[in-house]
């Protein structure tokens, strides 16, 4: 397994994405488009060639005209177009148009057509509207809540029903049935479909839209659109131009992070620590999306790298006494605190102290609030979590499965990382910042953060369970659950873990779609973190990571 991971995250394993290059256009100024307006962006000025920008500007204008026309014509056509824009990850160019067009298709949620009703529901729930899946699907089911068999022939409607079913918040009885019904009949229909549609259906079943990274799905959706007899060339070309811009930007970010990591020198000073810069960047690249967040991705990757280094120091380097002193130094939070520590811990402390203060200063400059006290507390909480695990190991103590999972949320590093992103991002309402920040730096983070953290811990432990069968290792959630439930088999425990993952997805949906505690950008990052977990921790029988490899080929060329 270790060799497989090393191979995946070596730079030479990343191949270029073969996408058609956008045609050249005339010269013009550079900037970023949003809602029909041109806004300057350092990232765009640096990365996007002038004629490519002119192409994007022209394509965006054409699509805006099309949206205005379809708004006057058909709610269904408007709704389908907006769905395609979202699936291609280019909807951010048309936020104003999409918002103003919502009224054109909201009534379709009451349609007797399965596709119209389910797509309207999904777009409305994603936009934060209070809509009931049970109310929408009632007209398609009998008195027992079973779907009409005639719907099994409506492939387009079934695909939309399947997408809708994954927006489950755990309180709508119709959605689990919708998932079962759509999955069953789509799988049965594949053999009778023309090849392009069959591939699209298989991809939708294997990688459901809501549960997977949008940028990964976008490429497959583009391929499907290109196979249709009726095509929207402007939309397709804008999507390709967006892919190219993202790839160029990610390449620059990756090179900057690689230079920072080499200059930092921790890999040389702590040889046993992981040296996986690409893996660390993959997290921030996928979780924090958008050209305007380039600097944030770079800074968050630094935080992620230090979480991994600290984890390795606790696991492989320090004695219990040294680790206790390391933890106390973090709580002191000053330049003299690490003086009595071993050299590697001192270097690690100085690095995380410097980077955290730099991020706090950046947040203050951009948003007028210095969060360093919240961030130092978040680091202290992480170190306390690592200390708990170290004491369990040193004393041979087997924690309760629930205690292990609760502490695993902290030691996943997700709450710490999102605390830094929260302050870099800022909030729309400054008055809420202290309350939300206190939750983020606490031992019990809010659901929007704890859900992806639990999903990460459980997915990681499911992978560890496979390794343990081969290597004799222990210490996963599965092991502690089996100790508490001796009548269960390992397969039973793993099925229980999958149910827990599904439950965390429901809670995450509820938090982001219904409660909407945090801003849209923060909620999207929480979703993306959960989506990235299955990519990062899913490997096949040959210990390969096919989706991760495909994703890296798509977004990076190093």
Provide the CATH architecture of the largest domain: Orthogonal Bundle
* Tally of discrete structural domains: 2
Amino-to-carboxy terminus distance: 24 Å
Number of helices: 26
Report strand order across the widest sheet: 1-2
Largest beta-sheet characterization = 2 strands, antiparallel
Radius of gyration: 24 Å
Looking at CATH, which topology of the largest domain would you report?
Farnesyl Diphosphate Synthase
Morphology: globular
**How do the SSEs run, as a string of H and E?**
HEEHHHHHHHHHHHHHHHHHHHHHHHHH
**Low confidence ranges:** 1-48, 428-433, 468-473
Proportion of residues in β-strands = under 5%
Mean pLDDT: 84
- Mind telling me the CATH superfamily name of the largest domain? Farnesyl Diphosphate Synthase
Based on secondary structure, the structural category is mainly alpha
Determine and state the CATH class of the largest domain.
Answer: Mainly Alpha
**Amount of helix:** 55-70%
Keywords: Lyase, Magnesium, Metal-binding
Domain Terpene synthase metal-binding: 263-507
InterPro entries: Isoprenoid_synthase_dom_sf (IPR008949), Terpene_cyclase-like_1_C (IPR034741), Terpene_synth_N (IPR001906), Terpene_synth_N_sf (IPR036965), Terpene_synthase-like (IPR050148), Terpene_synthase_metal-bd (IPR005630), Terpenoid_cyclase/PrenylTrfase (IPR008930)
Domain Terpene synthase N-terminal: 58-205
């Amino acid at each position: 397994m270790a060799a497989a991971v090393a191979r995946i995250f070596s730079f030479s394993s990343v191949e270029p994405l073969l996408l058609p290059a956008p045609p050249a256009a005339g010269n013009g100024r550079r900037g970023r488009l949003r809602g029909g307006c041109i806004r300057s962006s350092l990232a765009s000025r640096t990365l996007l060639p002038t004629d490519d920008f002119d192409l994007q500007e022209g394509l965006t204008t054409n699509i805006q005209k099309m949206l205005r026309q379809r708004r006057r014509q058909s709610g269904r056509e408007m709704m389908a177009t907006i769905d395609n824009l979202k699936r291609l990850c280019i909807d951010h160019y048309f936020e104003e148009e999409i918002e103003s067009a919502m009224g054109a298709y909201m009534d379709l949620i009451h349609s007797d057509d399965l596709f119209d009703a389910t797509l309207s529901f999904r777009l409305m729930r994603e936009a934060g509207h209070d809509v009931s899946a049970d109310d929408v699907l009632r007209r398609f089911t009998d008195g027992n809540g079973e779907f009409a068999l005639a719907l099994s022939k409506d492939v387009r409607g079934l695909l939309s029903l399947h997408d809708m079913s994954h927006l489950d918040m755990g309180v709508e009885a119709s959605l689990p049935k919708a998932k079962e019904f759509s999955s069953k009949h789509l799988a049965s229909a594949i053999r009778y479909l023309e090849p392009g549609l069959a591939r699209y259906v298989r991809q939708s079943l294997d990688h459901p839209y809501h549960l997977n990274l949008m940028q990964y799905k976008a490429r497959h959706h583009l391929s499907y659109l290109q196979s249709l007899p009726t095509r929207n060339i402007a939309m397709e070309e804008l999507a390709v131009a967006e892919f190219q811009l993202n790839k160029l930007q990610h390449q620059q970010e990756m090179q900057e992070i690689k230079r920072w990591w080499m200059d930092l020198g921790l890999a040389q000073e702590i040889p046993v620590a992981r040296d996986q810069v690409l893996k660390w960047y993959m997290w921030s690249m996928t979780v924090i999306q958008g050209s305007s967040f380039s600097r944030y991705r770079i800074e968050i990757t630094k935080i992620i790298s230090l979480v991994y280094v600290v984890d390795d120091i606790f696991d492989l380097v320090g004695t219990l006494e040294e680790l206790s002193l390391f933890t106390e130094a973090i709580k002191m939070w000053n330049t003299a605190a690490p003086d009595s520590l071993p050299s590697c811990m001192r270097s690690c402390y100085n690095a995380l102290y410097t980077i955290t203060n730099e991020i706090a200063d950046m947040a203050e400059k951009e948003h007028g609030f210095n969060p360093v006290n919240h961030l130092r507390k978040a680091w202290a909480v992480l170190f306390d979590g690592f200390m708990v695990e170290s004491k369990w190991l040193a004393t041979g103590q087997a924690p309760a499965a629930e205690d292990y999972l609760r502490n695993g949320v902290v030691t996943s590093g997700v709450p710490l990382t999102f605390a830094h992103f929260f302050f870099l991002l800022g909030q729309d309402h400054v008055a809420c910042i202290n309350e939300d920040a206190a939750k983020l730096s606490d031992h019990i983070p809010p659901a929007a953060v704890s859900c992806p953290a639990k999903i990460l811990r459980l997915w990681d432990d499911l992978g560890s369970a496979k390794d343990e069968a081969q290597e004799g290792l222990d210490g996963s959630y599965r092991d502690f659950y089996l100790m508490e439930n001796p009548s269960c088999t390992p397969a039973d425990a793993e099925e229980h873990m999958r149910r827990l993952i599904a439950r965390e997805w429901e809670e995450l949906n509820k938090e982001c779609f219904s409660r909407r505690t945090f801003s849209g950008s923060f909620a999207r990052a929480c979703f993306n973190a959960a989506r990235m977990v299955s990519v990062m921790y899913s490997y096949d029988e040959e210990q390969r990571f096919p989706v991760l490899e495909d994703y890296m080929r798509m977004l990076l060329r190093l």
